[in-house]
Design a protein that fits this description.
Blueprint (H helix, E strand, L loop, with lengths): L2 E5 L3 H12 L3 E5 L11 E4 L2 E4 L5 E2 L6 H8 L7 E3 L6 E5 L2 E5 L3 H11 L4 H16 L2 H4 L7 H8 L3 H8 L3 H7 L15 H13 L1 E4 L4 H13 L3 E3 L4 E6 L4 E6 L4 E3 L2 E4 L3 H7 L7 H9 L6 E8 L10 E5 L18 E6 L11 E7 L18 H21 L7 E7 L1 H8 L30 E3 L8 H13 L5 H8 L4
Parallel strand pairs: 1-2, 1-14, 2-10, 7-16, 14-20
Antiparallel strand pairs: 3-4, 5-9, 6-9, 7-8, 11-12, 12-13, 15-18, 15-19, 16-17, 17-18
Helix pairs in contact: 1-10, 1-15, 3-4, 4-9, 7-9
């Protein structure tokens, strides 16, 4: 039996671990922290529970893509609560309120009710979304040939370029990209294909995880352990040991050596390079990876509401105070925050009152660089003051959209890009890791193979972030060790 060491226990590490353990490998997952899950992690403060990264998922109605994947990964016990089908996302921009309805026809009709002159263009837009989605494994979950021309074309065209060619109404173009904080899209850079995958994924259906996203991590971990795999916490990998031709294992910070026939790293590629001291990795590759731009960081305010005071909001609310969703990551001190995403946590289906929620806004790592090198809970009073001031500004922004909102808050806690650095190891506190940029070409992509033949990469930086993006990356990586045809037969319940 081949030994596989997986570095990191986020969604990428856990799904890789499940597939490989199921297919005859012996898997050991090494996690640096005390808690598994990466961005699936949750935490509690004062009796309220909060998600740190994975706030909602899509395409999870019976028979849809995520539903099929959840069955494959034995997540049937993970309970989901569906967001409003007539408005899973709510966009507030330019003084108007606009809602995204689930389903192709419903979405077109809803948007056409706001922008009647744009209905034909909306049909063309959804046709393109469907064509791009169908050209990927995200839709078919098979290894069959797909329309690569559609895939390639829209990987090379920016979101705003495509929308400019489709719509004549400037406000509609802003509404269509109203949820861009979900993938940290940038003007003239982010490929339209990424927008299309996100739109297709959530337009099919959108759900929150009852009780928090850590239920996904617990489910995967239980299945891996039941099959004989191991998951070890507080095991920070410090070095990947290589001979002249391959990796032989890893060494952890406590100087324990773990032998490996294969190693899969799901940590940020910059962190991976820090573990490697081998001539097999060329200096040019190190330079390229270290210079890839990252997505923006984020500032979060985690809210605990007074009991029975805040009605549960079954939609995700995106608010913009500067007239556009674009360029919210580019701000002056006076402008911040330009926009925000506000959500409630789901403790049970059809709940009446919210117990907790979160507000997210972009924040660049430069804002907190003076505290770099400090640790959680030990950054000093100046850092705490910085967080309080920015939290109050963000709360004031939400109050403008929801008068009386602040009076319903019992307490709050905060996180900054430094928190992301500490808990996820991401570069510069970026929310989604490596940024997708049509101008970068192949140099802007992180490969899942390396020059070390038995070292593979997975996780959000290899394919894309989010539930579906990470799992698709997992399938690509695991197909190096499990025949692709067999893998898809298993997913579709035929093997």
């Amino acid at each position: 039996m081949c030994d596989v060491i997986i570095i990191g226990s986020g969604l990428g590490g856990l799904t890789c671990g499940y597939i490989l353990q199921k297919n005859g490998y012996h898997v050991t997952i090494l996690e640096q922290g005390a808690q598994i899950g990466g961005c699936l992690q949750c935490f509690s403060r004062g009796g309220a529970k909060f998600e740190t990264g994975m706030h909602f998922i899509g395409s999870a109605l019976p028979g849809q893509t995520m539903d099929r994947l959840m069955h494959f990964f034995e997540m049937d016990q993970v309970k989901l609560s569906q967001l409003d089908t007539d408005g899973y996302n709510t966009i507030s921009v330019d003084g108007g309120i606009f809602r995204y309805a689930n389903g192709r026809e419903a979405f077109i009709e809803q948007m056409a009710s706001y922008f009647p002159s744009q209905k034909d263009a909306l049909v063309r837009y959804m046709d393109i979304i469907g064509r791009i989605a169908a050209a990927s494994t995200l839709s078919s979950l098979t290894s069959e040939e797909r329309d690569m021309a559609a895939n390639n074309e829209y990987q090379l065209r920016s979101i705003n370029e495509v929308l400019d060619g489709l719509f004549s109404d400037e406000l509609l173009k802003k509404v269509i990209v109203g949820d861009l904080p979900l993938y940290s899209a940038e003007l003239d850079k982010t490929p339209f294909s990424q927008h299309a995958y996100i739109m297709d994924f959530y337009n099919a259906s959108a759900f929150r995880v009852e009780g928090g996203s850590d239920a996904i991590a617990r489910s995967l971990a239980e299945s891996i352990r039941n099959m004989g795999g191991e998951i070890l916490t507080r095991k920070k990998v410090s070095r990947i040991i290589c001979n002249d031709i391959r990796a032989t294992g890893v060494e952890t910070a406590d100087e324990t050596f773990y032998k490996a026939d294969y190693i899969i790293s799901t940590v940020h590629p910059n962190r991976l390079l820090e573990m490697l001291d081998t001539k097999l990795i060329r200096p040019a590759f190190r330079t390229r990876i270290n210079n890839i731009p990252q997505t923006a960081g984020g500032f979060a305010v985690y809210l605990k509401f007074k009991e029975g005071m805040m009605p549960y909001m079954n939609t995700n609310y995106f608010g913009y105070d500067y007239g556009t969703p674009w360029n919210c990551e580019c701000y002056t001190e006076e402008q911040w925050p330009k926009g925000f995403l506000y959500m409630h946590m789901c403790s049970k289906d059809r709940q009446q009152w919210a117990r907790s929620g979160v507000i997210l806004s972009y924040m660049n790592i430069s804002e907190v660089s003076q505290w770099a090198g400090t640790s959680v809970m030990h950054r000093g009073e100046s850092y705490e003051q910085f967080k309080r001031e920015h939290a109050e500004r963000l709360l004031d922004s939400v109050e403008k959209h929801f008068p009386g909102f602040k009076s319903k808050i019992e307490s709050y806690t905060t996180s900054t890009p430094l928190t992301y650095v500490d808990y996820t190891g991401t570069e510069g506190g970026s929310m989604y890791g490596v940024a997708k940029d049509i101008n970068a070409g192949p140099a802007g992509r992180v490969p899942y193979r390396t020059k070390i033949p038995n070292l593979l990469l997975a996780g959000q930086n290899v394919n894309s972030h989010g539930m579906l993006g990470v799992i698709v990356g997992t399938l690509v990586t695991c197909s190096e060790l499990v025949r692709t045809e067999n893998l898809y037969l298993q997913i579709n319940g035929k093997n």
